[in-house]
């Protein structure tokens, strides 16, 4: 059983929901990423999602785009990110780690070489933003032989027939994008999210995590009432950017941990019906 499947099953058995913080690997500084991962786990993160820096992150809003730019300026590559995962695994063998990235770096490395390096590093899953399910066969062949999960995005505009197609290609969980647009944009309509998740669950038995538009404990709590997991990205990336300008790395870690602890409390309040 994969770490991701085990984590969702464990959470479900205890009546809790997954908290999945998103970080741009190497932002604001490469040396901060692994300590930050450990701190976030320590305050309640269930799965860590690492963004692989890319020159054209089309799914991202301004905060995360700027995080990609900073990480690239810091010299962070796909291999660098895998090295961070490997370092994280020296202390944590249980928390699932997911890479979110784009097709070009994977193709440049080669799917087989990437998969072997990912397994060696201790990675659990991959989400490739710009790879449609119709083209994922060659990559999935390698991921499945290695027992790595392949996570797919679903949007508010995804038709039911396409949800079924994506569900057949996906493992681990499905990632529902709650808004039309990029990360960090728009107003979150939890009623509409609930309706869409009901349709998704008619097509798939995989857990469904929701991201895009979640900014605070209140919105996280509302989403946790209907989803299996909550993804927090832009708010965390922006906080790290803001604190990096004036604060020490210790203060940056404390600020990020404080934010995630607040989100955890909001989600658990939803779990307990409070």
Q: What percentage of residues falls in helices of 4 or more residues?
A: 40-55%
Put simply, the count of helices is 12
What's the oligomerization state? single chain
* Percentage of residues in strands: 5-15%
Helices and strands, in order, run as HEHEHHEHHEHEHEHEHEHH
Sheet/helix structural class:
alpha/beta
The geometry reads as globular
Query: CA-to-CA gap between the ends?
Result: 33 Å
The average pLDDT is 94
Poorly predicted ranges: 181-185
Q: What about the largest sheet?
A: 8 strands, parallel, barrel
Largest beta sheet: strand ordering:
1-2-3-4-5-6-7-8
Radius of gyration: 17 Å
Number of E-state strands: 8
Quick overview of this protein structure:
This protein is of the alpha/beta class and 274 residues long. Helices cover 51% and strands 14% of the residues.
Structure characterization notes:
- This protein has 274 residues and is of the alpha/beta class.
- It is built from 12 helices and 8 strands.
- It has an 8-stranded parallel β-barrel, surrounded by 9 helices.
- Strand 7, helix 10 (217-224) and strand 8 form a beta-alpha-beta unit.
- Helix 4 runs parallel beside helix 6 (111-121).
- The two termini are 33 Å apart.
Strands, helices and their partners?
Layout: H1 3-13, E1 18-24, H2 30-42, E2 48-51, H3 62-73, H4 78-89, E3 97-101, H5 103-109, H6 111-121, E4 125-128, H7 137-145, E5 149-154, H8 160-169, E6 174-177, H9 190-203, E7 208-211, H10 217-224, E8 229-232, H11 234-244, H12 249-271
Parallel strand pairs: 1-2, 1-8, 2-3, 3-4, 4-5, 5-6, 6-7, 7-8
